[in-house]
Design goal:
Layout: H1 2-9, H2 11-15, H3 23-34, E1 40-42, H4 43-46, H5 57-69, E2 73-75, H6 81-86, H7 90-94, H8 113-124, H9 129-139, H10 145-153, H11 161-187, H12 195-217, H13 220-230, H14 238-255, H15 264-283, H16 291-311, H17 317-324, H18 328-338, H19 368-385, H20 390-400, H21 410-417, H22 421-435, H23 438-445
Parallel strand pairs: 1-2
Length: 451
């Protein structure tokens, strides 16, 4: 535990170098790394410490340095290359996209590198009519949305490093042009701008948006390969995870700084991981449980399974608490938190109309026995009131609110009958005495006897 204590001691100095990761999550990350023989934590685990921080290169490097201070190594390698290649099979890419190759042309030798790469990219993304026809004919009969999505994103080839830089530069120039147009419009100077310059700014802004779309589309398979690694827990559907990962990819496209020298896919992976991890934490459960509590719940479930195999029975709360070094109350609390909420509309059995709400007792409602008793009591009260004259019966109805549940005061009843409140009190006393007569009260006494 001494190593973990040191984590918080060095956090102040590390925090001054940029956006710091969450200290509690960082402490858990260090404990996890120190518990392993190789002292290594993965990028998927590290993203929990950056879940509320933009995963910029500076933040990632700061996290790496802080972990190194405690002897832990960050392995942020992304083992997705094989999965990406697996998507490029004959079902998704080979029979769908016809890639156009530009042969060497002496006329291209005078072009700048960026212009040459851009020319090749336009050819690369040019759709093939023949490929599209094959796609339509092959996917026409499929009803699997995941497979259809895979086929669609497989039509776009992966980018090389120079192509990513070209797109990033276009995005940079497009963003600057959009900001200038917005500033001029806000100041009312847009109409005063030279038509040629205004046209040029709009062209750059449009080109930047197109570059964003191309960079995003070319990396959609990266999102799928990462999302598939989070789909096994059953917390969210694969398509939902892909959608959240796509939002992270779009953020990465906006934040990507090509001058840092990073390959875009390496940078985007952190944003995609963060978006998916955050979505699982926020949306997977009806009631959100903090990340550190989910970690404790998962640990308790894992230890409980191990003890069940060892003891050949379910461990008691006391035995779990002893193994986990938790208080017994915390073990019970974690068990309560681990219970998944169920919808009252969920069917009891497949193919039946009955739902869970049909068998759940609602303590706010009367039981059938209580409802029957109340109905019989009302009938008995009406029978007793029938023994009185009209004035006595109406007086008691108003005084005790028998009709509308609103009891009236002596003065209010007196005004209604046109007599004094004292006279109403006298009539009430006389009427109640009449009802207490055993001849009238016996039918009511059975409902109020206490065992």
């Amino acid at each position: 535990m001494s190593e973990v204590t040191e984590v918080s001691d060095s956090s102040t100095e590390s925090s001054s170098r940029g956006n710091p990761p969450d200290d509690a999550a960082f402490k858990r990350l260090v404990k996890r790394g120190l518990a392993r023989p190789d002292l290594v934590v993965s990028g998927d685990e590290a993203i929990e410490a950056l879940i509320d921080v933009d995963p910029t290169p500076e933040a990632i490097e700061q996290l790496r340095l802080r972990l190194a201070e405690h002897g832990v190594t960050l392995d942020d390698a992304v083992p997705v290359a094989e999965e990406i290649d697996a998507l490029d099979d004959a079902d998704t890419v080979g029979d769908v996209e016809e890639v156009v190759i530009i042969a060497h042309d002496p006329l291209l030798d005078d072009l700048e590198d960026d212009d040459l790469v851009e020319r090749r990219m336009r050819a690369r993304f040019r759709p093939s009519t023949k490929g599209t026809m094959r796609l339509n004919s092959q996917s026409g009969g499929t009803s699997d949305p995941v497979r259809m999505y895979m086929r669609e994103i497989g039509r776009v080839s992966l980018l090389t490093g120079p192509e990513e830089v070209v797109l990033a530069k276009q995005i940079e120039r497009g963003t600057a042009a959009s900001e200038r147009l917005a500033d001029l419009a806000a100041e009312g100077l847009l109409d005063a701008l030279e038509p040629a310059e205004r046209t040029q700014l709009k062209r750059l802004a449009r080109k930047g948006e197109d570059a964003k779309a191309e960079l995003t589309q070319a990396n959609l398979r990266l999102v799928v390969s990462i999302a598939k690694r989070y789909a096994g827990g059953g917390a969210m559907q694969l398509l939902d995870l892909i959608q959240e990962g796509n939002l992270g990819l779009m953020r990465a496209v906006e934040k990507f700084d090509w001058t840092k020298g990073f390959k875009f896919s390496t940078y985007a992976t952190w944003w995609i991981r963060q978006a998916i991890t955050r979505a699982i934490a926020d949306q997977a459960r009806t009631i959100r449980i903090p990340v550190h509590m989910m970690e404790a719940i998962n640990k308790q479930i894992r230890v409980s399974r191990e003890m069940t195999q060892q003891l050949e029975r379910e461990p008691t709360d006391e035995e779990l608490a002893s193994r986990l070094e938790y208080p017994v109350e915390k073990v019970r609390e974690l068990k309560r938190f681990a219970i998944d909420p169920l919808s009252l509309d969920s069917p009891l059995r497949e193919g039946e109309d009955s739902s869970l709400s049909d068998i759940i007792e609602d303590h706010r409602l009367e039981t059938p026995a209580d409802a029957a008793t109340r109905h019989m009591l009302n009938e008995a009260i009406e029978e007793a009131l029938d023994e009185l004259n009209d004035r006595e019966r109406e007086l008691l109805r108003m005084r005790f609110g028998l009709d509308d549940g609103q009891p009236r005061t002596l003065e209010e009843v007196g005004r209604q009958f046109g007599v004094t409140r004292e006279r109403i009190r006298q009539i009430e006393t006389k009427t109640l005495a009449k009802l207490r007569n055993p001849q009238h009260s016996q039918r009511l006494r059975d409902y109020f006897e206490v065992d």
